[in-house]
Design a protein that fits this description.
Structural class: alpha+beta
Number of domains: 1
Number of strands: 14
CATH topology: Fumarylacetoacetate hydrolase, domain 2
Distance between the termini: 36 Å
CATH class: Alpha Beta
Radius of gyration: 18 Å
Order of helices and strands: HHHEEEEEHEHEEEEHEEEE
Length: about 260
């Protein structure tokens, strides 16, 4: 990093970093990660908060961990980016077209900030429905792969859009992703067929962590928000012109096209 770039990075605030990210989001451009460079998760989460404050209401949250026992990470999902089944995504904003298939949960009750920690029983009571989702992974960072975990975290964990499928009543068994079967197709080709390959299959534990994180963060979780639980298929990249189709066993199929 040059001296000038280092000086600029050192003086960046969450608000200025968020402005750069949102400008890139609006214009379909990318910015150097040196405009962010949070040195801690706390700073990355502050940039997230400033980013969504400028975009609009929060429609959901994404949470995940690389393995059981590892501290999860999360990001708020702008409500404007929650899209219906069959969405068509075209234009300069869709460059990566990373595809992750997830099981998500929609809240029917608020989980506001409070002194007492939330428990699995609290989450079970608050969740109203379960649904399949496709997260479309995008980045506002010019050097995405080399940007580092904190910069990617600040950029809403590389969130582009969330395509939401048909909801059905929640049952406790959906918290266990160890036997979840998923088929992912690009056009007519099966590109992933997994059974229980989620890296952190205890979705209940992830959501309890998220509820307590959001409580401590002062945001809380709200009725109607959709909570994703991490990819069951890893990430695969779709080409322009691809029709993506997803089947999660026990849930209705859904798709997105580019």
């Amino acid at each position: 990093m040059t001296t000038a770039a280092a000086t600029e990075a050192a003086t960046v605030t969450p608000d200025t970093a968020a402005r750069a990210l949102n400008r890139a989001r609006r214009e379909g451009r990318r910015v150097p990660s040196t405009l962010l460079q949070p040195v801690s998760r706390c700073e990355a989460y502050a940039i997230q908060d400033a980013t969504v404050a400028a975009i609009g209401p929060v429609g959901g949250w994404k949470v995940g961990a690389r393995s059981p026992g590892q501290e999860p990470t999360c990001a708020p999902l702008p409500a404007a980016g929650l899209l219906p089944d069959g969405a068509l995504l075209q234009g300069p904003a869709w460059r990566l077209r990373g595809i992750e298939v997830e099981v998500a949960f929609q809240l029917g009750a608020d989980l506001p900030p409070r002194p007492a920690p939330y428990t699995l029983a609290d989450l079970t009571f608050a969740i109203e429905s379960v649904l399949p989702v496709i997260e479309v992974v995008e980045t506002r960072l010019a050097d995405w792969l080399g940007a580092g975990a904190q910069a990617q975290l600040a950029d809403l964990l590389s969130h582009g859009a969330l395509v939401t499928g048909q909801r059905q009543p929640f049952e406790l068994g959906w918290f266990d992703l160890e036997r979840t079967e998923v088929v992912l197709r690009f056009d007519e080709q099966i590109v992933a067929h997994t059974v229980g390959e989620h890296p952190c299959p205890d979705a209940g534990a992830l959501l309890v962590w998220l509820a307590n994180h959001c409580s401590a963060r002062g945001a809380g979780l709200k009725a109607g928000q959709v909570l994703t639980s991490g990819s069951c298929t890893g990430m695969l990249f779709a080409s322009q012109g691809t029709a993506v189709r997803v089947e999660v066993d026990g849930l209705a199929p859904l798709g997105v096209s580019f």
